[in-house]
Design brief:
Blueprint: H1 25-61, H2 68-101, E1 109-111, H3 112-122, H4 124-129, E2 133-137, E3 144-146, H5 149-166, E4 172-183, E5 188-197, H6 219-224, H7 231-241, E6 245-251, E7 255-263
Bound molecules: adenosine-5'-diphosphate (ADP).
Length: about 270
């Protein structure tokens, strides 16, 4: 391109020392496109429950006005739809917070095994009522690394909730903490947390896009399970902020393993 450009003297509009800024529009336009898609997705996700609720309000005002049973049923559905909107708005707020934070390294520390034990206690009821066998290893004792405790809780809550939601058929959940002496991608020692299930698994073609906002393998199934499609996007941004890595290994029909690798210290990473 440059070889074909003819350089002619600039008109002296700014006097001596005029400057030309060459801006690569393609990148700006691409992110503009991504932003537009995101707004369209959010609008669609909010509009679906809203439309359902407006329909039921109309029915409650009209045909179902004097039918107590129909009224109760419609109110239940409206409550569920409002819950869906509530979860979506909470996840959007989380996502926007973690994206804003992404360039600032966490200044606090987190005790990894204690944090993981806490998450398992919080989700204990859900794990138990899904009839899932929980296997853990390496969660004893204490191990402190740099990290934002609230954000890392969110990471493992999302991953474990997914294993419960989509791993149901396998009835198994594994949570493992292990030390890696030298993690090449982080050029130093690291801690790896594996969250595994023996559930439905994910087809290979979906894996590269799984952490995109609103990307779901099966939208209907995700919605039915109360998913917003934002969980793994939130996980990705938090792991990035910690200068960590997220690895996903999955085989259709056999199960999935999500591994979060976090640097032991921030000196090297
Ligand atoms: P959602 O709110 O839909 O669960 P996520 O961002 O958490 O959104 O996950 C994106 C999609 O990845 C899910 O809709 C599901 O299709 C797939 N997925 C996530 N975790 C698992 C898992 N453990 N097993 C199978 N599929 C999964």
């Amino acid at each position: 391109l440059f070889a074909e450009m003819t350089v002619s003297p600039l008109p002296d509009i700014l006097g001596q020392g005029a400057m030309i800024a060459i801006v690569d529009q393609s990148e700006i336009e691409e992110s503009e496109q991504v932003r537009r898609d995101f707004v369209a997705n959010v609008s669609h996700e909010l509009k679906t429950p809203l439309t359902a609720m407006m329909g039921f309000i109309e029915t409650l005002r009209g045909p179902a006005r004097d039918d107590a049973r129909a009224r109760d049923r419609f109110l239940d559905i409206m409550e569920r739809e409002a819950g869906r909107m509530n979860r979506l708005v909470s996840d959007l707020l989380s996502l926007s917070r973690v994206q804003a934070d992404e360039r600032r390294r966490p200044s606090s520390e987190v005790d990894l095994p204690m944090m993981l034990r806490g998450v398992l206690v919080t989700l204990g009821q859900a794990i138990e009522s899904a009839g899932i066998t929980l296997e853990t290893s390496g969660l004893e004792g204490a191990q402190r690394i740099p990290g934002d405790p609230d954000q890392l809780v969110q990471v493992f809550q999302n991953l474990i909730e997914n294993a419960v939601k989509y791993g149901g058929g396998g009835q198994y959940l594994g949570v493992t903490l292990r030390r890696i002496n030298y993690e090449p991608t982080l050029r130093g020692p690291a801690w790896a947390i594996d969250v595994s299930d023996k559930g439905e698994g994910i087809d290979e073609i979906h894996l590269p896009r799984l952490t995109e906002r609103f990307y779901r393998v099966d939208t209907h199934r995700s919605r039915e399970q109360g998913g917003t499609g934002l969980g793994l996007a939130i996980v990705k941004h938090i792991v990035n902020r910690h200068r960590g890595r997220l690895k996903i290994v999955s085989h259709k029909g056999q199960g999935s393993q999500f591994t979060v690798i976090l640097p032991e210290s921030h000196n090297r990473a």
